[in-house]
Amino acid sequence: MLTDKPRLLWAGLIVAGVTVMSGCEANSAPEATQTDDGGAAAASTAPVPQPEKSTPTAEGSAQTSAALTAIDTAEGAVAGGQVFDLELDTDDGVTLWEVKVAGSGGRQFDLELSQDGTTVQRKEQDTTPDDDVAKLAEATLKVRDAIAAAADHADGVTGVSAVEIDSERDGTITWEVTFGGDDGITVVLDAADGRVIRSGPDAG
């Protein structure tokens, strides 16, 4: 028969065991995420948001508009003019459009236009026309249409910075349209039917 003292000892051990087990169960519960203000926050199961596709910027749209204006101005300055090369260039802090225009009789003129495309600042005939002049005869797609078609495949990059007629190794005549400058994207189109041949930062 147990005396009162051993009974009290056994009761204390039982209580201690229950306390230890309760602590283990509490420790096994998932910990709440702590917020910056010390409060508890439940773990988020929401999907990670994906970056949105870039949208045309006002600056990019204005630059493309200036490019189209430069094309109209340059072609209007040359009899029978057709632009086949256009590039936005900055020299000594001055930004302007450098434009090559094919004229009647297979002639070529090199022009410099203001950044907004409205003013011809220099015009001279090139006595040794580029081979690209002859490629225009095979280009069903005109330069303005090439820009519009390329814009749909520029992955949201805006601002025409260069356009030129060129050809592939298999002889396919192409338009290469660049948006966003050297760090932008180039879209290469078949000049006969507007088909996209390739596009990307190094497509040109």
Automatic annotation (TrEMBL):
Record's compositionally biased regions (Low complexity): 32-46
Signal sequence interval, chain numbering: none
Disordered, as annotated region: 28-62
Pfam families to which the protein is assigned, alphabetical: PepSY
InterPro entries: PepSY
Coiled coil start-end: none
Domain PepSY stretches: 145-198
Protein name in UniProt: PepSY domain-containing protein
Biased composition (Polar residues): 52-62
